[in-house]
Amino acid sequence: MRSLERWYLRMTLAMHKTCFYLLAFQFCSLASFANAADNDCGDFGASSSCNSNLCCKSNSGFFADAELTLLTPHSGSVTIAPLSSTAILPERDLGVGGRYWLGYRAETGLGFRSRYWSFDQEAVGGPTLDPSLTAQTWDAELTQLFTRGRYSFDLSGGVRWGEIDDQVAPVLTESFNGWGSTVALSASRQLGNGPFSLIGGARGSLLFGDHVVNIVGAPIASSQEVMPVLEMQLGGEYSQELWGTHAFARAAFETQLWELPPTALGLLDQNIGFVGVTFSTGIRF
């Protein structure tokens, strides 16, 4: 069993490293393309030829963002030993969550950002069968903004705290609580000289913490484990100068994958995914 756990740890570490290299490669490729395709603005701040082109305006200052997440969790099949052929599929509805950002960026593009996300969702099942799922994350990270022409790239890295608590069945719950590292890359491309842009982003996190499985409130398995979390977004943005500040609104399609580790002796093994849409609005001072 220990050899299996070591294999799982090596695989998750390799996944995290691969995700980081992929983000770095994507950033370098997109930055090179943007530099060659459209270099009518400076790297940071304003250009004398900007006029009303938003891509040239300064991105420095404090910023805040509030995001509504409408996501449906999917746990797929749940394998419970020794009943390996038994699949428990909680039917889950759309859940509502909130994500909040606060940060500061200097004229050089270097900045700091704090993010908090909370999700709470109950499954369909009535008063006698009421499985539920809650999740939270908090990130503290350094950011570096690069702009070239109508393209912007925001590279970030820092620490993350994450927690997920899933009531798989009326008497069976699984939870994970831990800290780790997080890296992310987001990009935007302004459409023409107007206020609309295409946006996208990817984030990878690797958390180390406590993994607990309870039956009727009593822990039957508890261990220190590692869990990767992957997130992606793709959507659009509208931005506009408003009362001396820069305001924006975004809508995006979002997916997440939480790779919960298997318990000892293969008692419980499941992954949890989230899929849905997000709507956000924010302001930069």
Architecture overview:
- This protein is mainly β and 285 residues long.
- The protein has one domain (2-42, 63-284): Lipocalin.
- 13% of the residues lie in helices and 61% in strands.
- The protein contains one helix and 13 strands.
- It has one helix spanning 2-37; strands spanning 61-74, 79-80, 83-87, 95-105, 110-122, 132-148, 151-169, 172-190, 196-215, 218-242, 245-258, 268-269, 272-284.
- The strands form two sheets. It has a ten-stranded antiparallel barrel.
- It is elongated.
- It starts with a helix and ends with a strand.
- The model is unreliable at 1-9 and 18-57 (pLDDT under 50).
- Keywords: Signal.
Which SSEs are present, and which pair or pack?
Blueprint: H1 2-37, E1 61-74, E2 79-80, E3 83-87, E4 95-105, E5 110-122, E6 132-148, E7 151-169, E8 172-190, E9 196-215, E10 218-242, E11 245-258, E12 268-269, E13 272-284
